[in-house]
């Protein structure tokens, strides 16, 4: 990556970050050069800035977690359009905590739980809860293995869904800097989604809504696998790709 390939709006953001670090509007050149060097090496701008806006909150990000994508931000709209006032919510594979924290902000009277297999991710999610002053119960769990009771009326999951064989085609920035454990969905990209679906067969909830973010390539086949759910539909993302499954028990 050459400096010519970095758009001006990114350079401007790097300058602002350098001013913030040095506490000076004028004497920030050495800090700017250091930040620029990191960006030229392919480090994502979000990791350099150390935060991203997400819906109506701000989320700290670093290499412990995947950077939240616009598709996940739009997932909040999908949830808002499909459920009114959930009392108890579970976010599976919470990462930075962005979805769980937005659930608590949107539904302040609800009890929100969030799990992740990665303790590094959970430590960042807890920091984000403090920053945003939102109360969420975070704990370590491989999918639902450590979830004691399943009396939720909303379960949200943005699990790894990229087929292992296609990981190498991802942008170099992603491969070199972001945790691939958060992207690798196994041979067909459905490994964790299928496991979660199987775990949910035992739920005896009469009013459960499940919202999943999925890969466009397996959205249709996943949809047809929800045979024991009462109502299942596909929702599209902002660029009209099949991206979300909304299922009701």
CATH fold-level name of the largest domain: Rossmann fold
Number of domains: 2
End-to-end C-alpha gap: 49 Å
Helix content: 25-40%
Query: What structural category arises from helix and sheet content?
Result: alpha/beta
What characteristic shape results from the CA principal axes?
Answer: globular
**How many separate helices?**
9
Rg from Cα: 19 Å
User: Which CATH top level class of the largest domain fits?
Assistant: Alpha Beta
**Spatial sequence of strands, sheet with the most strands:** 5-4-3-6-7-9-8
Question: Describe the biggest sheet?
Answer: 7 strands, mixed
Any overview of this molecule?
There is one protein chain. This protein is α/β, with parallel strands linked by helices and 249 residues long. It has 2 domains: 3-41, no CATH class; 51-248, Vaccinia Virus protein VP39 (Rossmann fold, 3-Layer(aba) Sandwich). Helices cover 35% and strands 18% of the residues. The protein contains 9 helices and 9 strands. It has helices at 8-22, 29-40, 45-49, 70-82, 98-106, 119-132, 172-177, 191-199, 219-223, and strands spanning 51-54, 57-60, 88-92, 111-116, 137-140, 154-157, 209-213, 231-236, 242-248. The strands form 2 sheets. A 7-stranded mixed β-sheet has the order 5-4-3-6-7-9-8. It has a two-stranded antiparallel sheet with strand order 1-2. Strand 1 (51-54) and strand 2 form a beta hairpin. Helix 1 (8-22) crosses helix 2 (29-40) and helix 4 packs parallel to helix 5 (98-106). The longest helix is centred in the N-terminal third of the chain and has 15 residues, at 8-22. The chain is globular. The termini are far apart. The mean pLDDT is 93.
């Amino acid at each position: 990556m050459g400096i010519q390939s970095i758009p001006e709006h990114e350079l401007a953001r790097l300058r602002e970050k350098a001013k913030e670090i040095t506490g000076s509007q004028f004497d920030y050149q050495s800090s700017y050069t250091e930040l620029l060097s990191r960006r030229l090496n392919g480090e994502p701008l979000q990791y350099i800035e150390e935060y991203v806006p997400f819906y109506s909150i701000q989320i700290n990000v670093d290499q412990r977690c995947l950077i939240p994508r616009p598709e996940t931000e739009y997932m909040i709209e999908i949830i808002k359009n499909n459920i009114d006032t959930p009392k108890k919510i579970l976010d599976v594979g919470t990462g930075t905590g962005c979805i769980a924290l937005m659930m608590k902000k949107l539904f302040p009277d609800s009890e929100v739980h969030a799990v992740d297999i990665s303790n590094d991710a959970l430590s960042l999610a807890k920091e984000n809860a403090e920053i945003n002053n939102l109360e969420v119960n975070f704990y370590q769990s491989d999918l639902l293995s450590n979830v004691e009771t399943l009396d939720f009326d909303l379960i949200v999951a943005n699990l790894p869904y990229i087929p292992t064989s296609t990981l190498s085609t991802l942008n170099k920035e992603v491969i070199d800097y972001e945790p691939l454990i958060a992207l690798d969905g196994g041979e067909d990209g459905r490994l964790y989604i299928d496991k979660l679906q199987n775990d949910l067969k035992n739920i005896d909830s009469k009013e459960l809504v499940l919202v999943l973010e999925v890969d466009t390539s397996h959205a249709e086949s996943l949809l047809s696998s929800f045979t024991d759910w009462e109502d299942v539909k596909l929702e599209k993302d902002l660029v009209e790709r099949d991206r979300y499954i909304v299922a009701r028990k």
